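Please predict the structure of the following assembly.
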Amino acid sequence: MVATLGAPLAIVCVYSLRSRGAYFGVEAPWTLENYARLWDPLYGAIVLRSFWIAAVSTALCVVLGFPLALFISRAGSRKNLYLALVILPFWTSFLIRTYAWMFLLRDTGLINTLLQSVGLIHAPLPMLYNSGAVILGLVYGYLPFMVLPLYATLERLDPSLLEASADLGARPFDTLWRVIVPLSAGGMRAGAILVFVPCLGTYLTSDLLGGSKTVLIGNLVQDQFTGARDWPFGAAASLALMAAAMALLFAVRRKGEDLL
Amino acid sequence: MRRFLGLYAVAAFAFLHLPLAILAVFSFNASRFTVWQGFSLNWYRALVQDRELIGSAANSLAIATVSTVAATIIGTMAAYGLWKRASPWLSGGMYLSLVTPEIVTGVSLLAFFEWSFRFLNARLGMHTVILAHVGFSLAYVVVVILARLRNFDAATEEAALDLGATPFVAFRLVTLPYLAPAVAAAALLAFTVSIDDYVITSLVAGVDSQTLPMVIYALARRGVNPMLNAVSTVIVAGLGALVLVSERLRHR
């Protein structure tokens, strides 16, 4: 484990502090310039966009995942079936699930074809290759990560608390908003981390659904290592990404939450 | 509210499952456009005749098989070791590997391999892909096995030792049979993450080690192609069958 993960990371640390060589190598002078370049407005915009898209996707996962988790936690004997339906996508290739959305969203895709044949629209809606498509793909991909921890907390919720709330005259909505939601904050936090971290580092979704306009940190890193061949800068960007993920994890774990 | 939740759940499950279902339906379409023109197996025929796809599928299967066997053995031993004696460094490293964004794992493995090539006479290829796959699937194996070990009564193993079994015999005859379902589940998980992976593989692959996801990705980037629907359907059905079988095994 140390050999397969520690050593590579150490090398990336070293590379990130060096300069770019003449033939896409990594050469001597030690420098912090690679990190400084991350603040360049050009790259800053990419970093900001990555955080923004990850945040919106996470928020949507909370909003969409909560009612589903609540439904499953109250489903009685059919709980396991519903849980299986949520977990099933885990076993399906992420790449294929992303491709499925390309198939639906493109100009001559199913949605546009249907809408046009019904006569609702006359020109295809540009649904693919923008941030909206990326967010959709991320929510679709990571919704299960939100539903499972939420379900785990809702499942453990003491039903007598809900009865107490109802006995004291709260309407169902008040009970939901003022009892159930605050009590499931732990699961929500765990789910938010599980969704936010991979969204922040996404590469595949933004590349396939976002096209060339929606470049995120993941795409930046990949491009520096393959296309642009600027390894030191790519290493700095990937370490910054890693640091952001770690910081978030520790922020949550300090509160004594158990993530897995 | 109950009614609303039920309706909502139907919509949510549709959102999760319809895209793939539609993809599968259109893999049987006679036309290459998104208009239904009758049932046909054309795209499956095209798929079987595509050398690149078949070759890459063979690569993927070979890589997944070798890396699954290696990761399952190493991971089981690591989990057993961790259970016997907790090691904050090892478990910390494992945790780290689970939360590291794939792209970071990929580029650091690439940097590591390129660096080691200064001393070794080697290039990127099947072996680097297999090493990478063993690396990233190890953590999954350890997590699954450790979860099962937590419910294992250490006294059972101690009893075997007291009755004169060597530690190895005790492990083989007492602990391992108890772990068997978890080992099978872990192997399955390792196999699926290996056969699915695109991001890390594409970075550490050489010219001879194109995998199926890499070919699919290249085709998808060029646009929608009905043959891709057919490949996807085959993969989804294959993985689905695998999961069903393993669930059967686990609950027997």
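Chain B touches chain A through 68 residues (CB under 8 Å). The mean pLDDT of chain B is 84.
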